[in-house]
Structures are given as structure tokens and as C-alpha cells.
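Supplementary material to the annual report.
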Amino acid sequence: MHVPEPKTRPGDSPDFSEIELLKFAPVAKPEISEPSENLRQLPFHLVRTLTDDDVAEGDWIPGLSASVYRKALEYMTITRVFDEKLLRIQRQGKTSFFLTSRGEEALGVVPSLALRDGDMCFPTYRQVGWLIARDYPLLKLVNQIFNNREDPLAGKQLPVLYSAKEFGFYSLSGNVGTRFGHSVGWAMAKAYRGKPDIAIGFIGDGSTAEGAFHEALTFASVYNAPVILGVTNNQWAISTFSGIASSEHTTIAAKGIAYGIPGIRVDGNDVLAVFSVLDWAAERARAGFGATLIEFFTYRAGAHSSSDDPKRYRPAEEPTSWPLGDPIDRLKNYLIKAGEWSADQHEKMTKAIHSSVSESIKEAEAIGVLGKSKPPVASMFDGVFSEPDWRNVEQLKELGI
Ligand SMILES: Cc1ncc(C[n+]2csc(CCOP(=O)(O)OP(=O)(O)O)c2C)c(N)n1
Ligand SMILES: [Mg+2]
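Predicted assembly:
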């Protein structure tokens, strides 16, 4: 009997010696048509393009222009600033709950830019970057966070559990892991109807220990679903380290082997590599080669949520010691070194983002923070059933509506 324990706890120095071994090493890029039995070593490597010297190297450099990377940089910075400001707003009691994607901004923003209109993302709650990268209005996000009268979901969801079908963003759920299977089902339906659209589903590292993960992989494999199955391995599941979800014995990407699905592990803080691996998996799905399991190797730099205090279970310096760095800093340094960006431009951009995010928050505050303004009671059952349910009709009548 062995109960996995993290190597370090509060008061210890962070120990990432195993991850240090994942420093840059070239990984050959296979053809999309390569059968999965020839790709069984792939999930034990780590795909990177950005070296420790902030230059891009190897087979996986995506053929994208610098303007795409500048856009990604901008959207990732908006995501971070949005998170920082809204967390402060939660601390002021203006909303009940908040959760950030600090350190994982690439995993919302890059899939959003890499996939097409018509594709559908089945996200985790740490991927608001998808919406931000598709120019979803920040005001609407904050209205939902305040559950005020302009809340696009009219108070039917928790703050941060967004839903925006027209932005390719499937409704979030507090039940972790459930969206993974939905993404496979959606992809199967599209393929059945002969549509070219693909799905991308996400699950956290901790949630891969749930049955939902294995059920989704089974269906994806059996029905050759055009889906990208993404695991955001941020090393933690609230206070539980990734060893509890089995990372001590194998990689999460390697679990694809059992299902005949290619598994690939990518540095989730390397924007170029994330673009490239997503593009490879999307091409496979669109060409009829089926699902790809991608493990996005990253680190949860913030607390789990506004209800969590990570200093109680991990060394305080862990977030700043992650050997694979910060996704925004790395992209910024790469672009500056390539002559495509400057420190001055970065400062100006960040300043402008701070004022536009603050502006959206102020606008939403004027409509009303939590409890000060509510969606109309009459809208309580709107959008819940396609045909009004008689019980709800009676309940509304009781309220005199
Ligand atoms: C089905 C279910 N079980 C448990 C929980 C409680 N819970 C909320 S978040 C979380 C941890 C999830 O960790 P991970 O999957 O690694 O995602 P991360 O938060 O790290 O992005 C747990 C156990 C839940 N919300 N739903
Ligand atoms: Mg996690």
C-alpha cells in the first residue's frame, strides 16, 4: 500500500527536480496519418518550441505570423488583468465566488484562436480566455459575476460558470469532468451529420481520476470521434497534488495508449507549442483520423478559488519557481528577441488593458453588484425547458406573474 505524498509542503523549498529534466529537447513531429501504434513513445516526451533562451526551435514551430502571437499576448494579458481585478472585487464582497486562470492563460486563449468558428469548446472553469480571445464583452462577464439584472444567464449559473453558445463556448458546470464526455458526443453528432466541425473538450488533471475521463476516451476511440481531448495538468486539484491522479507512474497523455488514441504532452506555458500541437490534433480530427489526447503541462499559479489558501498545503514560493516559467513572460520575451515587440509597447498595452477592464467593471457596478440588482423573477424559467412546464407556469401564477 502506498499513499502518494507531494515532495514538499509549506516551509520546504520547492522541489521541481523531475520537471527540470523536461528542459528543451527536440521532439519529432509525426505525420497526422501516422497510426497510433507508432506513436506510443510520444506521450513520454514534452513538446516545446521556446527554448530557455527565448528562441523557437524544432519541428513544432507553427507557421503563424507574429501578429497572431501579439494577439495571443494581448488576450492573455487581458485575461490576467481581468482575473486580478475581479479577485479583488470578490474580496470586497461584491460577488460571492471567483476563480482565476493565473499561469494557465494560454490554455483558454490559444485554443480559441487555433480553432474555427463552428467548432465547439467544452471548457473547464479556468478557460475564460477562450471567450476573451473571441471578444466576448467583458461587461457581460462582469454582469454574470455580479448576477445583476443584465446577467446574460439571468442568475441561473454561479459566477465564472459562463455559457455562450454563439462564441463556441459550451455551458460550464460545477461538476468537474462532465464536459469531457459531452465534447465526444457533440463531435460524434457532427460527424454523423457529415459536418466539418470538431469539438475540443477539457478536463483537469485531478478529474482524470474520475470515470468520466475513461468513458469519454472509450467513446472517442470506438466511434473515431473528431475531437481534441485536452487535460489541463496544472499539478494540483485544490489541495491534492497530481500524484493522487496517478502521475507518479505514467503521464496522463500516455493513458491514450490503452484506447488506441495518440497521446501527446505539451508545455502549456509555451504558446507556440500549444498552437502547433492543437493544429496537429485539429488536422487529424478534420481528416478523419479521430481523437487526440493532449496533456497540457502547466502550473496553477494562483489559489484554486477565492475560497482556497494554497499556503496551507504547498510551499509559498512554488508558483514563482515553476521551471517552465510564465506563459505571458515567455511569449513576450520571445517576441522582443525576434524584434516583433518591445518593452515599451508591452507597457503601453498593459496600461490600456488595465483601464478598459476597470471601465467594464465600473459599468457593471453601476448596474449593480451581487444582491443590489437582480434578474427579473419572471425570467426565472426562461431557457430552462423548450416548452413551458405546467409546474413552472403554476409557480409563476402563485407569484402573480
Ligand atoms: C464531480 C465533482 N467532484 C468534486 C468536485 C469538487 N471539486 C471542485 S474543483 C475540484 C478539483 C479539480 O481539480 P482539477 O481537475 O485538477 O482541475 P483544476 O481546478 O486544477 O483546474 C474538486 C475536487 C466537483 N466540483 N465536482
Ligand atoms: Mg488541476
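Residues 17-370 form a domain with the Rossmann fold fold (CATH 3.40.50.970).
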